[in-house]
């Protein structure tokens, strides 16, 4: 790369609404000895982006302001740290970056090499940027927290979003019987992903007719009345946004999936994509100048698939 010292980036200096996203010229990230500097082609917008922007995680003290948001990245290796041997300059890669560090709403991002994987060959950069955070969340929930086999029944809330689209497919790969909850307009889409049964959350008392499941994966965490009653006493309830305080009458297990960056798992997911075993969520592509608009769209919590951003 040429001797570039600054880059464009979108940062927040304080928590709040979309107006807090400021385009600035900032210094190029430092590249530590175990890092890969990636020239960003595309990033994506995930709900965690605007929740961090609004200050939902402020009390956890994960971040230091000013902060560049956006932790999904697909792009090209621009530089490698002196200890890095697995990647070469010019190589196409993708990653979910460290959530505690600056993200990819920028021209470059520095990521520990252990979190980076080679871009799936079948995907362009826009498609690849839609994969990391959502697929890893689903992978870690389905493959690590849920005990799934051919006898397992699973209920997935928020099934048509980025995480849900992958979760349906990962659960089906393991042989589960999948019931997916989403609005009626997304039912055909979910059937193409392999869902055995689709349910409209707009139907009154829809949960009461479903019976009980071995696993309930609640991606929405909307505390809908009756959701705990859909979990078998011997089953497990998995949430994403928070750990739930369950009433004492429930005996099932409960865990929260707190997604962790993992280059090895991204390599496995990429192989499944290249082999045609996993379909991508639908993507909506928007320019860098429209990230605020993309946040507004994501905040509706009714996005099918993923929003990707061209840098």
TrEMBL record:
One GO molecular-function entry: oxidoreductase activity
Entries under InterPro entries matching the protein: ADH-like_N, ER, GroES-like_sf, NAD(P)-bd_dom_sf, YIM1/Zinc_Alcohol_DH_Fams
Residue intervals of the Enoyl reductase (ER) domain: 16-309
PANTHER family in the cross-refs: ALCOHOL DEHYDROGENASE RELATED (PTHR11695), RETICULON-4-INTERACTING PROTEIN 1, MITOCHONDRIAL (PTHR11695:SF294)
UniProt name for this protein: NADP-dependent oxidoreductase
């Amino acid at each position: 790369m040429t001797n570039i010292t600054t880059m464009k980036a979108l940062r927040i200096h304080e928590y709040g609404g979309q107006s807090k996203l400021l385009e600035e010229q900032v210094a190029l990230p430092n590249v530590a000895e175990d890092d890969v500097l990636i020239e960003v082609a595309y990033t994506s917008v995930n709900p965690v982006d605007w929740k961090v922007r609004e200050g939902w995680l402020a009390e956890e003290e994960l971040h230091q302001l000013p902060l560049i948001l956006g932790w999904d990245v697909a792009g090209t290796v621009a530089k490698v740290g002196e200890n890095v041997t697995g990647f070469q300059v010019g190589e196409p890669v993708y990653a979910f970056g460290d959530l505690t560090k600056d993200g990819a709403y920028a021209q470059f991002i520095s990521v520990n090499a252990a979190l980076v994987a080679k871009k799936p060959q079948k995907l362009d950069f826009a498609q690849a940027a839609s994969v990391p955070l959502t697929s890893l969340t689903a992978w870690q929930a389905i493959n690590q927290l849920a005990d799934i086999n051919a006898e397992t029944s699973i209920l997935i809330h928020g099934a048509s979003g980025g995480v849900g689209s992958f979760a349906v497919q990962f659960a089906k790969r393991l042989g589960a019987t999948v019931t997916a909850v989403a609005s009626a307009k997304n039912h055909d889409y979910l059937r193409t992903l392999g869902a055995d049964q689709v349910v409209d959350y707009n139907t009154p008392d829809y949960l009461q007719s479903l019976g009980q499941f071995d696993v309930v994966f609640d991606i929405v965490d909307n505390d809908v009345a009756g959701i705990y009653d859909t979990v078998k006493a011997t089953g497990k309830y998995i949430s994403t946004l928070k750990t739930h305080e369950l009433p004492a009458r429930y005996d099932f297990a409960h865990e929260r999936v707190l997604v962790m960056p993992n280059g090895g798992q991204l390599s496995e997911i990429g192989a499944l994509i290249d082999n045609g075993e996993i379909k991508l969520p639908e993507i909506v592509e928007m320019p860098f100048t429209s990230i605020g608009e993309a946040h507004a769209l994501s905040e509706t919590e009714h996005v099918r698939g993923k929003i990707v951003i061209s840098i």
